[in-house]
């Protein structure tokens, strides 16, 4: 493996996540057609990739729904992004694909500055639009939205958002590989649902996760956290 400006003696250390699926990623959710949602294929492209959520913001601390409101990183988030950039320098990837929101772009820029990889902006990697609920604390309305009971005015439906997120990740995976995706916790739900089949874990800020697709030896997606 060729590392960004470092010898193989400094190979990165990954810890395998215990949450992964025993199925290929075409089996997910309940639907009359288990392979599609809103007419879009439910298959996550089976390629190795990396994903990192943006660094911390003040709204993260307050548990407010940020959505597409363009909240910047706070000081802690900038430090987190810098640490993620140093970690990214120890792995092999060719392309950075980022959400257009500033909290993701700033995180991606710190990684670019250390690794020299170009950033490609993919608009659909933006966080979910929660309409009139953006800026509010995630409470009962959030669970009702996820269950399809009630969609806030001006918001995306849960299913429409998942379809967009999956399409955006697949668009990123079509770029020169391996790809590092810099985006949001909501966008990562598509990976959790369509690949590792677990949406209960919250993705921490600025932690790089490696994803390895199913193979003969391991017929399931495997996820690894990059040690700092």
Question: How many DSSP E strands?
Answer: 9
Envelope shape: globular
Number of helices: 6
User: Structural class, from helix and strand content?
Assistant: alpha/beta
C-alpha termini separation:
19 Å
H/E element order: EEEEHHEHEHHEHEE
Rg for CA atoms: 17 Å
Specify the biggest β-sheet.
7 strands, mixed
Described by its quaternary structure, the protein is: single chain
Taking pLDDT < 50 over at least 5 consecutive residues as the criterion, the unreliable ranges are 5-10, 18-41
Helical content class: 25-40%
Question: Which percent range describes the beta-strand content?
Answer: 5-15%
The average pLDDT value, as a whole number, equals 86
Strand order of the largest sheet: 1-9-8-4-7-5-6
Keywords:
228 residues, alpha/beta, two-stranded antiparallel ribbon, 6 helices
Question: How are the SSEs ordered, and which strands pair?
Answer:
Blueprint: E1 14-16, E2 36-37, E3 40-41, E4 49-53, H1 58-61, H2 75-88, E5 95-98, H3 102-115, E6 119-121, H4 140-146, H5 158-173, E7 179-183, H6 185-196, E8 208-212, E9 222-226
Parallel strand pairs: 4-7, 5-6, 5-7
Antiparallel strand pairs: 1-9, 2-3, 4-8, 8-9
Helix pairs in contact: 2-3, 5-6
3D architecture notes:
By secondary structure, the protein is an alpha/beta fold. Strands 1-9-8-4-7-5-6 form a seven-stranded mixed sheet, sandwiched between helices. A two-stranded antiparallel ribbon has the order 2-3. The longest helix has 16 residues, at 158-173. The chain is built from six helices and nine strands. Helix 2 runs parallel beside helix 3 (102-115) and helix 5 crosses helix 6. It is globular.
């Amino acid at each position: 493996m060729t590392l960004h400006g470092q010898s193989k003696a400094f190979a990165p250390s990954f810890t395998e996540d215990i949450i992964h699926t025993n199925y290929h990623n075409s089996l997910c959710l309940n639907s009359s057609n288990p392979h599609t949602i809103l007419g879009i294929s439910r298959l996550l492209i089976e390629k190795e990739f990396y994903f990192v959520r943006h660094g911390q913001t003040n709204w993260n601390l307050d548990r407010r729904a940020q959505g597409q409101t363009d909240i910047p990183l706070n000081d802690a988030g900038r430090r987190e992004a810098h640490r993620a950039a140093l970690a990214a320098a120890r792995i092999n990837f060719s392309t950075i694909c980022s959400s257009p929101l500033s909290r993701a772009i700033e995180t991606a820029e710190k990684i670019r500055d250390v690794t020299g990889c170009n950033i490609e902006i993919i608009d659909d990697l933006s966080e979910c639009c929660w309409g009139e609920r953006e800026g509010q604390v995630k409470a009962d309305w959030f669970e009702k939205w996820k269950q399809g009971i009630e969609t806030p005015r001006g918001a995306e439906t849960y299913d429409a958002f998942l379809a967009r997120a999956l399409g955006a990740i697949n668009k990123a995976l079509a770029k020169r590989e391996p790809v590092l995706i810099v985006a949001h916790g909501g966008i990562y739900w598509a990976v959790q649902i369509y690949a590792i089949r677990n949406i209960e874990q919250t993705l921490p800020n600025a932690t790089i996760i490696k994803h390895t697709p199913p193979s003969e030896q391991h017929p399931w997606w495997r996820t690894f956290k990059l040690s700092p």
